[in-house]
Structures are given as C-alpha cells and as structure tokens.
Amino acid sequence: MVTSGLIYKTMGISIASFAFWTSVLYLPWAIKPLWSPYIDVISTKRNWVVWTQLLLGAAFIAAGMVMPLPFFYPLSLGVFAIIAISSASHDIAADGFYMYALDQHKQSFFVGIRSTFYRFAMLTALGLVPVLAGTIQKNTGLDPVSFQARSVLPENYVPFNPDAISIEQSQGKLKVLLFPSDLVVPVFQEGKSALDSAVVYIALSAPPEEGETVVVNLSRESGSKDIDLSGSSTGRFEFDSNNWNKPVAAPIKVNHNLTGETTTQFLITAGNIAFSWMASLVILGFVLLAIAVYNRIMMPHPDEGKTSERMGWSVYKEVFVSFFTKPGVVPALVFFLFYRLGESQLLKVATPFLVDSRSAGGIGLTSAQYGIIYGTIGMLSLTLGGILGGVTAARVGLKKVIFMMALWLNVPSAVYIYLAHFQPMPGNLMVYVSIAFEHVGYGFGFTAYMLYMLHYVGESKFKTAEYAIGTSLMALGMMLPGMISGAMKEMLGYENFFIYVIICSIPGLLAIKFLKIDPTFGIKKETGKGVN
C-alpha cells in the first residue's frame, strides 16, 4: 500500500484522494476474521496458498497494464482491491498451512527463515520496485534539460517577453523547449520594488503521438535555496498533441530575505512514468507467478484430514466472546486502535512528502532515490529497531518499557518536521540519517504493540484465532486514520501536518496507563540445568 502511494504521487494524483482510497484497501485485513472460516470450507489451505499466489501474480500484471491508460486511477484501484483481498486470504491460508504442515520443531526452525523472507518481500516492494521504476524513468522519455536562474537587483532586471516565443514543429527526436534558456529573477526590495519573480516557459518541439501524454517535471537541482519554484506551481506539466506548442508558465520566485545576487540550477525531466510503473509491476507479477508455480510443485502435502478441520460457527462465536470479555478489554481496545494513530497517518503522507517537488514543500527525491532511502535503508533500520525492541523487552519485561517504546514509536516522527522546515537536498546525508532514525524508532516501538497483543491473548485455547482478531483491529487502526491523512495534509501543509502527527500520539500514550500487564511478561525465564 505504501508503494501504491508512490505510484499515484508520481502519476499526478492528489494526496487527499489516494491516501483515502489506499487506506480503504486495508479493509480486507480488518475483516479477515469474518471470512476466515470460509477458507477451510471451500478448499484446503495448500490450495488457497497456491491459488492466491497465482491471482496476485496475474493482478500485478493487470495493474501494470492499466498504468498507461487514460482511466488508470479507478482501474488500478480496482486491481489493487483484488490484490488486497487475495493478500489477506493468502495470509489466512499461509498461517494455517504453516501450523498444520510443520510439527512444533520445524515451526521453530523455520520461524526465522519465514521472518527473513517477509522482510525481503518488503524490501522488494519498497526498495527494488521503486529503484527499477526510477531507473526506467531516468533512461526513457525525453532528454533532461537544465537551466540556471540568477537573481539580480531590480534596476538590472529586464523581463523576458513571452511574445517573442515562436515554436515550429521540428523533425527528429522529441525535445523539451525552454524560454528563456537562462532565467534572471529580480530581488525583492520592500518599499522600492514589488517584483520578486520571473517566469520560465516550457513547451515541446513536436506533438507526441496521438493519445500519448508527456509529463514534464521541473525541480530545483542545486544551488541557493533562495530561488525556487513559486508555491503556486506544482512543477508538473502535461503535454499532448493538442497543447504541445502552447508554452506553460512556471513562475520562479526569490526569497524576500535575499538581498544580493545568487544562482540556482533547475532540472526539467520527462521520463516515461507510466511505462516505468507498467514494466516494474509486470515484472513483479511474473516473479510472483513463478513463485506460485514453484510452491505448487514443492510445497508439502499434509494429511488432508488435518487441513480439513472446520471451526464451527458456535466455536467461532466463542472466540469473539472470549476476546471481547477479557479483563481490561476497554483500555486494550483503545490501545489497539489508537496506539498507531499518528504513525498510521504519517505512513500515508511520508512517501508523497519525500518525492514531492521542493516548491510544494517536499524533498524532491526521484523514485530510485526513494527506493534506496525509504525502501532499503528504511527497511534495514526497521528490522534493527524490531530486534532491539525484542531484546529490551526480554531483559526487563514489557510492563517496564512499554511507555518508553511508545515514545520511540512517535517521537522520532519529529524528524519529518525538521525535513519539512529545512528541506535538505535529496543527496544530503541528513535525509538518510533522518529516515533511518525514524524507522529504528518505528521498529522499536511497534514491538510493544505486537508483544501486548500476545499478552492480551494469553494462554487462551483460541490463541491463534484471537490473535487474528487483534491483527484485524490493528489494520482497522491503520485504515481509518489513513483515510483522513491526505485531507489533513492538504489543509495543514507538510510541516504543520507532521506536528499534528506528534499530537495524535497522545491518546495511545494515555491508554498505556490503564493497561493491565503482568510485570514478568516478556522476560526470558531461567531454566534449571537439572534435578538432584
């Protein structure tokens, strides 16, 4: 779901829209317990694993194929909904198959391997796929064009006359045209001159093929931060066969605190974004199909009698009654739903923030840079944080550290306030350090959530089923806040939104005070060496 946000952001969809709809896609995970009994009723868990993997592969191929289409947004959302349902069904079947097909010793042996491959899957989705798409974007489409913007005092400023622009269709390779080739911007002087901006005009050298749209992105590449795109410009422009020779205006503005001359380099890129995501998703789909075929051949065939065990509706009802009548259920539910209130909204907006244009308040990462920073470094940091969280809880117990872990989940989100305020350049070390620090905190703090869920379920005879209810509540706690996150960002702007995210951590922190936790839970128990 995180990668879908990157796709939609680079394809020009508003944050408010895709944050809402991609959050709705969490619904299949939120209601998993309602249809999990049907998994066993219809067929074996082994068959469900293979079927859903085949469907996932085909769906990713379909998602890729709709990307170049005019109505890709609703079509791709429909395909992603199929992926969400298939993924949640696969989750149910795979968990059950793992327990039925392996004895207790093999379950213990493979738990680390299973976790490793889960991390690798996340690394693929958040890292490898965006890097592949970014590489394709860089090497397809039109050649990039760079230009320099230079500030001058008002008395030395000569405005460019757009009436002088003349565009005649040229033969050969399609190119981006720029007027003027180098831009002069007047320095603002209060009381003397109200001028503070100049305009660069962008067009194409020839019409694209009929039905094709060329997306041009303008961003600041290097130099002074005192010259940048005006806040009224998104830096994204679309050209087709009807408007290729109609120059679009991109206002460049100076900081009002600037008093002298300085320069800034801007870059215009026009990579084939739709094709890059089409190719990346189709390749991913074929990989998943290959994995499904491999599993169809290699997965063990457990005793059909085991996999055909059914959980009757009376037992199913008993599971829900057991879960929702435990001591301390009210603060537990508040904790499950609100512990990630801030982080669930941050997750939806962090991706568009990192790739958004600098004039819109973002960092301006390319898809490839995002894949490296957020997908690769972020996932490794998340894993490290999870390991540290588990080790800490095992040493002193969950009760002693749960509040500290909650702080670690939420406080590092403040790095986004720093990034939004100072907007370091994409290659700046602080961008890497900030994302790594936030992910370590996320991994460390999220461990408390999972451990408390285990504590709440306890030694119930329906432990697995009740744990599934807990994960469904977790998905619900991600879905509902995520649905409003984009609208909140549009209303507040990036920097104020990240402050709002920190404030949203308060309900989850308050709920911890009322949780009933065994002081010894999580502490590794000493085992005797023998008996006399």
Number of helices: 19
Strand tally is 9
Described by strand count, sense and barrel closure, the largest sheet is:
5 strands, mixed
Structural class: alpha+beta
Q: Largest sheet, order of strands side by side? A: 3-1-9-5-7
**Roughly what is the average pLDDT, rounded to an integer?**
87
The CATH class label of the largest domain is: Mainly Alpha
Fraction of residues in H or I helices: 55-70%
Coarse shape: globular
Radius of gyration: 27 Å
Beta-strand percentage range: 5-15%
Number of domains: 2
- Helix-strand string: HHHHHHHEEEEEEEEEHHHHHHHHHHHH
- Termini separation comes to 57 Å
The CATH topology annotation of the largest domain reads as Growth Hormone, Chain: A
Quick one: CATH superfamily of the largest domain? Answer: MFS general substrate transporter like domains
* CATH architecture name of the largest domain: Up-down Bundle
Task: Report low-confidence residues grouped into runs of 5 or more.
Answer: 527-532
A few lines on this structure:
By secondary structure, this protein is an alpha+beta fold. Helix content is 59%, strand content 11%.
Describe this structure in words.
With 532 residues, this protein is of the alpha+beta class. The chain has two domains: 2-138 and 275-512, Growth Hormone, Chain: A (Up-down Bundle); 141-270, no CATH class. It has 19 helices and nine strands. Strands 3-1-9-5-7 form a five-stranded mixed β-sheet, with no helix packed on it. Strands 2-4-8-6 form a four-stranded antiparallel β-sheet, with no helix packed on it. Helix 1 (2-10) runs parallel beside helix 12 and helix 11 packs antiparallel against helix 19.
